[in-house]
Structures
1.
Amino acid sequence: MAALTIKDENIQSLTGKVIVLTGGSSGIGLATTKLLLELGASVVSGDINPLPIEHDRLTFVKTNVKQWSDLVSLFDHAKERHGRINHAFANAGVSGRADYLEDKLDESGKLLEPNHEALDVNLKAVVNTAYLGLHHLRHQDPAGGSIVLTASATCFQRFRIADYTTAKHGVLGFMRGMVPNLEGSGLPLRINSLAPGLTETGMVPKGVVEAAGHATQSPDVVARSVALLMADETYQGKLIYSDQGKYWEMEDAMLKTVADIMGAGDDSIMEKIMKMAAQRGPSGGSLPGSSN
Ligand SMILES: NC(=O)c1ccc[n+]([C@@H]2O[C@H](COP(=O)([O-])OP(=O)(O)OC[C@H]3O[C@@H](n4cnc5c(N)ncnc54)[C@H](O)[C@@H]3O)[C@@H](O)[C@H]2O)c1
């Protein structure tokens, strides 16, 4: 695990950049919006709730991230106003909603499907936001830019809010799945994630955490990790954990632990299989993840 220091000079290059983000009306998203504006960037913010601030380089688009058409409009607004998107930050989130050991029954006594709100907002909508972001980054001229995903420190721990933890592990999984694809695309596209520890926001009230004997950090701390992931063009597939004002890059250490046991891993085999299948052509048989 590598401890990081984020200096002002590491994030200055965001001046003049255009960032689309979700969940910008509160907490980490709002702190990030303020930092980006201070750095001279333009922000197009999509949230289900109104923005509490105004700025001439800030556009608000009312967006429910669960609605695909809302997300499409959010990115279209950014493209129409600025002509280009440099970074997309998929951040909107909710706390856990499901209790998988609770029996919720319908009128006839049959078990009801669990509440999937946390999976829908924290995972499905994050994938949709990233997918739309990549679409715009790929098709602009010149192509390029980055995606930043809000995972959580719960993406690499046992954490008892199981639906939330499932979604956040899924966010990390999406990033891990996309890195080889982006590297193989030959385009200057990057994807990175943040893993905040307990941070004082609308979701995590300071008093509740402090009553349990743990200090929270300010969302301003997390905002700087978002800015670094956007600004540093050497970052690809990184995961920045922040807690109580300090930063660590986690992903390299976690992947090294796995590689020490597995070697190059299954993706190197999948790469060879896919190359062989491409040489054989469409009749070459189906692969996991292919639509054949
Ligand atoms: N606060 C923490 O300790 C902590 C730790 C790790 C990760 N996170 C993650 O940080 C992200 C931001 O959360 P936060 O802590 O700043 O909480 P927050 O409640 O202050 O902010 C969440 C924002 O998301 C918006 N949002 C929720 N559902 C939405 C929807 N359907 N469509 C559009 N916008 C929606 C809310 O209106 C709000 O502005 C989340 O993904 C959360 O899981 C938070």
Note: The helical segments are 27-38, 68-82, 117-139, 162-185, 206-211, 219-231, 251-262, 266-280.
2.
Amino acid sequence: MLRRVSYILLSAAPQLIRFKKKLRLSYNFLNPFVKPSEKLRLADGSVVLIIGGGPAGSFFAINLLRKAKSSGIKIEVIIVEKKKVMNIQELNLNECQIGECNYCAGGLSAKVCEALKKLGLILPAKVIMDKVFIINIFADWKTISLDVLKEMNSVYRGSRPKGRTDSIYNFDSFLSESSVKEGAKIITSEVTGLEYSDDGRVVVSFRGNNKTIKSDFVAFAGGVNGFLGNRFYTGEKPLSYLQEMIPGFKPPRVRRTLIFELDTGENDKLMYKISGELYFILHGSHTLKLEMISIIPKGKYITVVLIGPAIDSSTNKDNLRIINEFMNLPHIKKLLPRRAEIKNLCVCSPNIVTGTAKNPYGDRIAVVGDMFTANLYKDGIGSAYEISAMLAEVAITRGIDKRSLRKGYRSVIRKYNINNTLGKLVFLFIRIFFRNSFFSRIIYQAVITERKTKTRENRRLEKILWNTASGEDIYKNIILSMYHPLAIWAIFSGGLLVTLRNYMTELIFGLRWGNFSRNTTGVGKEVFEINSKVIKEEFSGNLGEGSLDFERMYSIRMNAPGEKIFRELGKFGDKDRKYFKPRFIDVTRISGEANQPGCIIRYNIFPRQLSFSLRLLKSIPGEHLSYEIMNGFGRGGILFFKIEAFKKGTMVINDENLLSIYVGFNFPKNLFKYLFPAYIHDVLWNFSLCQLKEVVEN
Ligand SMILES: Cc1cc2nc3c(=O)[nH]c(=O)nc-3n(C[C@H](O)[C@H](O)[C@H](O)COP(=O)(O)OP(=O)(O)OC[C@H]3O[C@@H](n4cnc5c(N)ncnc54)[C@H](O)[C@@H]3O)c2cc1C
């Protein structure tokens, strides 16, 4: 009789649930042992089981154990991870098992690095594959490079590409180990089922044995890559058991990605070229439609992630074709080593989260990490940290019944729902602007104008780009700062107007951007101030009377030895030089030898009144050249070329140099400064330095 009643109740459960929702009743038919208003709490001796030992699982374990300890509750925390090899404490140095990867590019945002520090977790050096010093946002006109002033790292998650012989200790091993130190236990097995027991607790079963664990609370932190591809299959695990436990649970939307790893081999030059720099590119080509390309350095390896329509509609069979097509895109060829010089190590197509789950909680169960949600395209690990810290707080302070979890989680769900919708708008906006040559030139110019004129803290546009590329701020704030009147004004005045003026100047001086690459030469206000002070002190006797009427500085990265750049600078006054040849300006060495102190270079400018001469004062091969302004249009002043090793953080890059040019002038009459204004210097030098770079690099 009892069995009949329970059968009828169970088969009618879905209708009853809908009916219950209508009447706003809170009786749980699938777990009838829990009274509707019963407040469930973790207490001494409670067992918490976490499914999945990725970032969400480990962060949750650490936060929960600490919170419980500070609240005086003794709980047992068990993490169940399906990977067979966890690589904890280097106990197992075998080659990693294929399929034990955590399908992630392993970029640790500044937010995650700070969170780790806050938790007192010091990332061991062997886990860090690379430190990030520069984020490059690739735009059609020019790449915008942002200095990374906070700690950002790249790491491996789970197994590494097959064939690697170096340490396999990775970020996930480190987090698992940290949770063990905190008091968690780890079981390596796959959770295959969940059900409520008669006393309302959760019975967890595992693959391949009859063992079960009864727990007071279960957190599902198993991610969204149980199946690679771009779908969840209703009826398949883990979705089936999650939906049985939480009627109404709907997984987040996901999108197929393509991730692959390249090996630069033993070529140090290639390694240094990519090391320390992240690239974000927002377009592919007409045939390979991509929306987001991330290139993440890992020492001599490079991880590449592709997202976009070309990937959405692909299958595993297309992966190699897509990689080849990608490597042959003109803008990718400029960044990455040639296809022939690198090996493809591994490739797969995991899911990335783009939405938020519905009802990610029930009595004694909650979903955390990717299976709940993640920040759109950026900082998924940071989201896993944030959500798991929030769940730990709710579980200890509010309770583990559905109602308490809902109250605690409500704000996070709302935040991520709004955030990811707005995130799509941010990326759409950036994509439209950055893939178009004209628009991207305006944005680039606005960023550079701001960089030259404002201190770092006051640069709105740079901050917007940094927050978007690093995942540091929520998309709502990014949108608000994009539409701030001052940001729009900065784009109009420092971007549109300056671009039009520069474009006219290029036309007048006959500067046509040919087949050579366009590069940044604008220098930040703080860099300019430091350098200008040093140069002015050193050449105080050559600057003429009073303070300088006009000063400018430009810098460009060159992938060439200092001596080669120095030699090419010596051709400054030669007829056959391949740079600095604008219309109306003729630059000729009229006496002395190239790069020899005392040589004189004449600038014949139309109209003639603007002409002047330079005399080389000092020359240190491979390092610097300083010319003084002698006579004519300029009365006192200096033209200074400095070649120095390019640094990424403290890392000096072999054969990569930074060429900086400082120009300071005094004029006989103030009016002269308006006859040849500073922006003309900007346009001429920017164009000429890009030409010079092309010459020395090829
Ligand atoms: C291509 C790609 C690149 C990315 N790059 C970055 C990046 O550079 N930086 C960043 O911050 N984020 C990145 N992300 C997002 C990031 O990977 C996720 O947001 C993050 O891994 C979520 O952590 P998680 O713990 O929820 O899930 P996961 O990392 O997927 O961990 C889940 C764990 O649970 C285990 N598991 C699953 N099911 C079971 C089961 N039934 N029983 C036992 N164990 C189970 C799995 O083995 C796994 O170890 C990327 C995502 C993709 C797809």
Note: The longest strand covers residues 651-665.
3.
Amino acid sequence: MASKTAIFRGILSQKPRFGARSMSSLFQNIEPAPKDPILGVTEAFLADPSPDKVNVGVGAYRDDNGKPVVLECVRKAERRVAGNLNMEYLPMGGSIKMVEETLNLAYGENSDFIKEKRIAAVQALSGTGACRLFADFQKRFLPDSQIYIPVPTWSNHHNIWRDAHVPQRTFHYYHPESKGLDFASLMDDVKNAPNGSFFLLHACAHNPTGVDPTEEQWREISYQFKVKNHFPFFDMAYQGFASGDPERDAKAIRIFLEDGHLIGCAQSYAKNMGLYGQRVGCLSVLCEDEKQAVAVKSQLQQIARPMYSNPPIHGALIVSIILSDPDLKNMWLKEVKVMADRIIGMRSALKENLEKLGSPLSWEHITNQIGMFCYSGMTPEQVDRLTKEFHIYMTRNGRISMAGVTTGNVGYLANAIHEVTKCA
Ligand SMILES: Cc1ncc(COP(=O)(O)O)c(C=O)c1O
């Protein structure tokens, strides 16, 4: 009988079923993925040793010293969470309280749709996760549909619907000459799309252009959507960041609701509560009745289950504590306004500085645009010069994150922009 050691020796000396060479060939043809255009900017910024460097690439709020901000209402809510939190799983659809409060923000506190339980809603992994969940839902239950996406848009929208295998079409949005909305072409595209098309709309503070339709234009868009029976999917990543008032920033959605549309909506607390890394958001779909809403919600949960089972608890608790406590909610509303006002102030300062330098160009669009971003109109070559000569980092489409502009760097930034644009 073989001794025990002999048995094990035999096992150890057996050759692995795959030789070292065939294992390595499994992955050898995989090329590195292209850098994400937005996250790549931060990497380059961090690697630059220059003391003058400025990052106006990433859409994350900074205070006037260029430092990340944790809102006071969040700090207070965190203190309440600490000690009282167990680490149990949330339900598949996430925190019911958080979702309820989040629907109030988008649909209005006294919304009949909420009372009638017509909204299928689940907590999502921030705005990105909400968009992705919807895209997967669209593919699974409306497999012949497409999504119309504005030109330009947040670059990740293309990735999200691509990976969900939903065919993409585009519609006109931005007018490069006026640096405003190309309303006529947008309306033509809405009219010419096949009846019942899906459209992705930025509810407010359009990224990257900072160009939003006026209230009147939203009404016309909504009317035409009704005529064509199109479905609007609102991505609302910046509620409160545009005007400083979350109610006002929900206006586009409210117009569509008044007009009797069914809608989809992605909400995020990354920007307006500064909960970027907590990944807390919500996907909602307004259905025709409660029965449909129950079915849709159960299917959304079914899609989430094999991906991540259930969403994280910490950020959701912070949000529900803030929004369900009148004092904390008031504090949040004030803090959102402070952030929005600082950005609006920096828009004026950047424009004034450029004018003082005697720039021959018009910079009206800096203050006409709204939200976190200014779509400056600079060319990729001009942006390259800003980076090489002035250590200023931003995406090559000329998008300036106004949240990264401060009283300390606005003069330097204006001067650099003037230098690279004055001979254009
Ligand atoms: C238009 C738009 N949608 C969605 C998001 C998603 O953000 P998050 O997933 O961090 O909530 C962003 C973030 O930059 C955005 O600009």
Note: The radius of gyration is 24 Å.
